[in-house]
Give the backbone structure.
Amino acid sequence: MTPELRAVLTEALTAHQVYRCSRCGWDEESIQWWQCHGCDFKSNTFPIKGVNRVVLGEAIAAEHVADVIASLPGVAVIQLPEPDDDHGDGIAFWTAQEVGVADGQEVVR
Ligand SMILES: [Zn+2]
């Protein structure tokens, strides 16, 4: 990972913090939802009773951050297929491209 990419990801993750909101009223069901500090993201609402707020909040925040990272301008997120060769040195390679990954760094032969 380049320092520039790390800075872009850090900035995005810092900006998109998801926090919980709730509303309680006499005449309506008490509800909770999550919003983002960095954009107009707002989750669906959920009843307060019977919902594990921590687990639900973590899942909602993780999904939002995944969407944010996948949509960053100038950043491509791809899922690689299984490598098909290691040249005997333990570095995984995709032989068609001769590009591999070792310790999180791209290796080109
Ligand atoms: Zn956001």
In short: Helices lie at 3-15, 53-70.
